[in-house]
Amino acid sequence: MSTRASTLTGRIMSAPSIIVLFLWMAVPLGMTIYFSFLRYNLLSPGMEEWIGTLNYEFFLTDPAFFASLANTLLLVGSVLVITVVGGILLGLMLDQPIFGRGILRLLVIAPFFIMPTVNALVWKNLLMDPVSGMFAWIASLLGLPAIDWFTNAPLTSIIIMVSWQWLPFAVLILLTALQSLDRDQKEAAQMDGAGPVAIFFYITLPHLSRAITVVILIETIFLLTVFAEIFVTTGGGPGLATTNIAFLVYTQALLQFDVGGASAGGIVAVILANIVAIFLIRLIGKNLDK
Amino acid sequence: MGAIRLEKVKKSFGTLDVIPGVDLDINDGEFVVFVGPSGCGKSTLLRLIAGLEDVTDGKILIDGTDVANEAPAKRGLSMVFQSYALYPHMTVYNNIAFGLKMAGESKDVIDQKVQSAAKILNLTDYLERRPGALSGGQRQRVAIGRAIVRNPAAFLFDEPLSNLDAALRVNMRLEITGLHQELKTTMIYVTHDQVEAMTMADKIVVLQAGRVEQVGKPMELYNNPANKFVAGFIGSPKMNFLGGELAAKHNCHEIGIRPEHLAVSTESGVIAATVKIAEHLGAETYLHVEADGLGPMTVRATGEMPLGEHDKIFLTPEQDRIHRFDAHGLALGAS
């Protein structure tokens, strides 16, 4: 966009898409904010009235809110740790010239193509089921009692499933970053007397810092709203053990038909996501400026 | 101390013999340049000495000890890479200090060594910068600094100047030569540029297809090339090779005469020729000519020469500067 004329043309040409996108975002957000200040329950239609911040007071003082906030943070944090550490290790392995690397890479990437609901059903019915699941079968071979995963370790089960889903993404990003590491740098470090462990911590890991940042930021966005895995397996229970913010908003809106309360919850979720985003950008975003 | 001796060093990649077997003696404190066209195996040979590649066969002796199966760091050598291979996320200080840190030196010793290396290389003001904020020449100096602090038995340079622009290259050439005179450490320097080889080396090793074609002092190679390949590779512009009757007169298959050893006359001479292109550089003039019955030749005449396209000239070789070659390209003695 070098001349004034071409700048103007550019703005005019891109205006329609920007306007559509803006409306697409702004209208639902505005409606949600509006609903969040109403008494609006689908079970009593026509009774809508302005009640100020009462929905927010109810939502924020609900014990379920704190439980689901804790669950959300625990879920996001655990999955991030597992996928980043696991992604680095798998990436390092797949970067080696090992036998059958092409097929291995394909297999590692595969879980990412499976939709979350199917993923959850596979884990629930084929792997973690205490009667007919594979884990129970392995346990019986070893003479151990079968674990009823969703009863005894519900959040852990969800974390395992979501990690399995997101590990390929981390591997993919980190593997490409590993492949762009200059071979000369490793050799220079070798000449400087660094062993494999020192090379990993002084050369490889700093090189990966940017890719790790990307993985953390993108995964966080998606992990804050994990829903399908919970809906299909535990339904948020037992009790509130696996209810996260997204699932709590769902129960408000579609199980209690409280549109006003759900809207308030949605706005709270948006604010929380922004707090997390600001926090993350401050913490690790500087890695992206290099 | 850094005397390096290669005994029948061989390197194969699969069935391909990159280096079929090289014997070479490098004395302590010598500046040795490996030179040859690209793909001649000079970098591979350097990497074998460094330990970055495993030898297929043979011995590499450093001060009498065979290190062919030692890890690179155990050989006490330092290397400067073509791409510099600086650690981008570390400051200049940490780049230089890295090797010492890995060797487990104390903070005080590291600091003192880094500071003194920085002083030698004029890097003192840049120690807290990252490589990304340095110019090409400065990066080059950091790479050299990283090599110096380890106080190696020998320095290995892998085409270190090829990423620099022409003016800087001449500067760094002088700096590296100066550094060698100061440190008096053995240096092995790989390049494809025969000018770098001629100007820097105590000893030049000319390589082709993994074989050592000739080893000698720069002027030895210039004056007495062992074969046609060395004769053509050393010296710029390239030596002229002439066959036919002229060669028969000297009892050989082909004669070689350097462009600077041809006298130019407009009246009479041994070879009649027509000027195709004249390059006037002021101090000298390069004439690209078509010699009658002999084909294209290059002439390097001193000073200014008022000649242009289509001018007829006569060339006379200096008799004692004629190189004679047999049918296999090997040099014959003076006739």
TrEMBL record, chain A:
Transmembrane regions listed in the UniProt entry: 12-37, 64-90, 102-122, 134-151, 158-178, 198-218, 230-250, 262-284
Subcellular location: Cell membrane
Main localisation: membrane
This protein's record includes keyword Transport: yes
Domain annotation ABC transmembrane type-1: ranges: 69-280
Entry-linked PROSITE patterns: ABC_TM1 (PS50928)
Keyword Nucleotide-binding recorded: no
Keywords recorded for this protein, A-Z: Cell membrane, Membrane, Transmembrane, Transmembrane helix, Transport
Family assignment from sequence similarity: Belongs to the binding-protein-dependent transport system permease family.
Listed name of the protein: Sugar ABC transporter permease
Native species: Thalassospira profundimaris
Automatic annotation (TrEMBL), chain B:
SUPFAM superfamilies recorded: MOP-like (SSF50331), P-loop containing nucleoside triphosphate hydrolases (SSF52540)
Recorded GO CC terms: ATP-binding cassette (ABC) transporter complex, substrate-binding subunit-containing; maltose transport complex
Taxonomic superkingdom: Bacteria
Gene Ontology molecular function: any one: ATP binding
InterPro entries for this protein: AAA+_ATPase, ABC_transporter-like_ATP-bd, ABC_transporter-like_CS, ABC_transpr_MalK-like, ABC_transpr_MalK/UgpC-like, Mo/tungstate-bd_C_term_dom, NA-bd_OB-fold, P-loop_NTPase
Keywords of the record: ATP-binding, Nucleotide-binding, Transport
Ranges where the ABC transporter domain occurs: 4-234
Matches recorded under CDD domains: ABC_MalK_N
A Pfam family annotated for this UniProt entry: TOBE_2
Entry annotated with the keyword Magnesium: no
PANTHER family referenced in this protein's UniProt entry, alphabetically: MALTODEXTRIN IMPORT ATP-BINDING PROTEIN MSMX, MALTOSE_MALTODEXTRIN IMPORT ATP-BINDING PROTEIN MALK
Family, as annotated: Belongs to the ABC transporter superfamily.
NCBIfam families named among the record's database cross-references: PRK11650.1 (NF008653)
Protein's name according to its UniProt entry: Glycerol-3-phosphate ABC transporter ATPase
Source organism (scientific name): Thalassospira profundimaris
